[in-house]
Amino acid sequence: MLRIGTLFLATLSLTAISFDRAGAQQITGEPGSPSATTTIDGRYLPNPPEAFRGQIGLDAKSSKPYWPPQIVPPKGAPNILLIMTDDAGYGVAGTFGGVIPTPALDRVAKAGLRYTQFHSTALCSPTRAALITGRNHHSSGFGVISEQATGYPGYDSIIGVNNATIGEILKQNGFATSWFGKDHNTPAFQYSSAGPFDQWPVGMGFEYFYGFMGGDTNQWTPYLFQNTTQVFPWIGKPAYNLTTDMADNAIDHIRQLNAAAPQKPFFVYYVPGGTHAPHHPTQEWIDKFKGKFDMGWNELREQIFANQKRIGVIPANTQLTPWPDDLPTWDSLDADSKKLFARQAEVFAAYVAYTDHEIGRVIQAVDDLGKLDNTLVIYIEGDNGTSAEGSTRGTPNELITIEGMQIPVADQMKFYDVWGSDKTYPHMSVAWSWAFDTPFKWTKQVASHFGGTRQGMAMAWPARIKDAGGIRTQFHHMIDIVPTILEATGISAPVMVNGVAQKPIEGVSMAYSWDNAQAPSARTTQYFEMFGNRAIYNDGWIAATTPPAAPWLMGTTKMPDVIDGYKWELYNLTEDFSENNDLAAKMPDKLHQMQELFLMEAAKYNVFPLDNSILERLLTPRPSATAGRNDFTYSGVISGIPPSNAPNIVNRSYTITAEVEIPQDGGEGMLVTTGGRFGGYGFYLLKGKPVFLYNFVDMERFRWEGHDALPAGKHTLVFDFKSDGPGFGKGGTGILKVDGNEVANEKIPHTIPALMPWDETFDVGVDTRTGVEDNDYQVPFPFNGSIGKLEVALQP
């Protein structure tokens, strides 16, 4: 027995030695005790398992336990609060000369530094991918938003396991990590409960997620997730708004972390929906801005420009770029247009201020816990320039303009009193957007010019950054945030994560600028590209293509050849902050040099193949559970299926067949629906009568309805639609049948041309969020009978 025991112990000893790693870790506390902690090298994640350093005998009495130390960040590593708002250009925030008060951003700037040459990619998903990976957007698979993903490495909307996020890195180095608000970095074709979840926030290193997956959502009835589960917190709460709810959730989470593990640093990634459309502030905030924009967009621009010079966030010699010829001046408008457009800006400004206020509550919660002094707060105002997606007129429903349509001012005036409420999904005129991007040209989507890419950013860490209220002019980009966080925390960029070799971090740390306002920019070169519009920055110069079509036209115009059909501009930024003086004609050799540099950078970072299509890419087939399928069958009650996993009837012929059983007291309720108040369809029973309702983006509703209520028992209901296509938004003929008999037949002139609402879901037997016709029913409108089978057959 003794020999067996000796051999057993020897084997254990050899096993322990074989797992021991070279290079001892620095351990605090008594080694092997439950309170022992350690930092790690961090280049290989997860950290290799700690060798057992206790003793194992034949029984516990003759053995000594040894607990592996808990992994912690380096001593003194700050908490990280990374904040970014949405669709806000350089001239929006009061902190950077705008007329909209942003006291939370002011607070960060006064405690730290304002950066006046900080840049995005010009679009939502791409900027966010660059921000959380430290790599260029094409390097991270996000050359465009996920809804336009194509099957190329730079454009497939898959961040990939070789691009570990800052959440993953900090989590594996001992931080508590969380993400609140907008995602838009999960492939749109992976939103469903079937997963996979490796590209969801919880699969990319964020241990807690509370937010929405897509580009935007209704703030009154959001398409919301907690980790990977849909939640409906607004039910029973008439005053609910996600902007406040998200702040409440983040504050509670931070307090819970502090109560459970006060010494564990946190990384909170806080990215609210504001101020992307829909502009959904509360009425209290809207009332604060009544009459504040009656001066119009041209005077607003002058005011912002003067403010920017006064507070020093643009150089004194900056020139205000000219107003574009294809946007109207304020004085040319009639009275109704001025009234409507002023209202649009009031609601947008209210949303900016409301969003900043709730951000301020989160910052204050950190302060209340006594942790703000050692928290690195990075507050970025906007993930791109102010959005042009509202068209020249604005819209009470963003889906209208995203589809490439416009709604007349007279029709919009019907929504004047409810603008910003749950009855609208609104956006403002692009003329306001251009003004809010002062002093620059262009807007969101335009990567070639600073109107699309220049963001106001403030950074504070009171325990470390001492030039409180300072201004920094170094040229930087979203990809520089991750290396800045890594340097601040003393954590290495990993070369391998979860067994996968990592792409190098492409950003550079900004920490060098904290103590030296005059330090030369560590970033000397940066490319920009979106939808074929492109630019290249190098040592104070930038070469940029002239946009061949305005972004508010949403790709509805003919585009030139993406390689050879673009005109280029050239600017010396050391003398021309606003890109006002084009030197391309005077310096052709310099321009050619810059163009060659763009090609080199584009090849390096997966930018090719260039593509300037917009609507076409929205309709590109992508991997999903529906790819290649034309027939879908359901039974019972099912809700919450995202559009990417549901039958897509857009621009197709289709047949919907429902086998139902009607109860004795008559049938009532939803059979199947996609969409809601702002577009979609519903097939339902109303007072016993079958109804198919097609909601054309809340502009028109087409209705097929049976004359008679269905008697109790089993019935087969069919809606058959024959499209007049192929082509975008073609009309067609719909026929409603009951038990094989035609009960309604109608031809309609048009259908939704590109997208069903992205923040509504496919539901069977019930309707969630909003209904397609408020005059008929209110959600959830459950069907009171039973659905034996529901089939959707799409024509190829």
Helix/strand layout:
Elements: H1 2-19, E1 27-28, E2 37-38, E3 44-45, E4 70-71, E5 79-84, H2 103-111, E6 113-119, H3 124-133, H4 166-172, E7 176-182, E8 208-212, E9 224-226, E10 229-231, H5 242-260, E11 266-271, H6 283-287, H7 297-311, H8 335-368, E12 375-381, H9 398-402, H10 409-412, H11 430-436, H12 450-453, E13 454-460, E14 470-472, E15 476-477, H13 481-489, E16 496-497, E17 500-501, E18 525-530, E19 533-538, E20 541-545, E21 568-572, H14 588-604, H15 615-618, E22 631-634, E23 638-641, E24 654-662, E25 669-676, E26 679-686, E27 689-696, E28 700-705, E29 713-723, E30 730-738, E31 741-750, E32 762-764, E33 786-794
Parallel strand pairs: 2-4, 3-16, 5-11, 5-12, 6-14, 6-15, 7-8, 7-11
Antiparallel strand pairs: 1-2, 6-13, 8-9, 9-10, 12-13, 16-17, 18-19, 19-20, 20-21, 22-33, 23-32, 24-29, 24-33, 25-26, 25-32, 26-27, 27-28, 29-30, 30-31
Structure, explained:
- With 796 residues, the chain is of the alpha+beta class.
- It has three domains: 26-72, no CATH class; 79-395 and 428-517, 3-Layer(aba) Sandwich (Alkaline Phosphatase, subunit A); 631-795, Jelly Rolls (Sandwich).
- 21% of the residues lie in helices and 22% in strands.
- The strands form six sheets. Strands 5, 6, 7, 8, 9, 10, 11, 12, 13, 14 and 15 form an eleven-stranded mixed beta sheet that branches. A six-stranded antiparallel beta sheet has the order 22-33-24-29-30-31, with no helix packed on it. It has a six-stranded antiparallel beta sheet with strand order 23-32-25-26-27-28, with no helix packed on it.
- A hairpin with a 2-residue loop joins strand 30 (730-738) and strand 31 (741-750).
- Helix 5 (242-260) packs parallel to helix 8 (335-368).
- The longest helix is centred in the middle third of the chain and has 34 residues, at 335-368.
- It is globular.
- The termini are far apart.
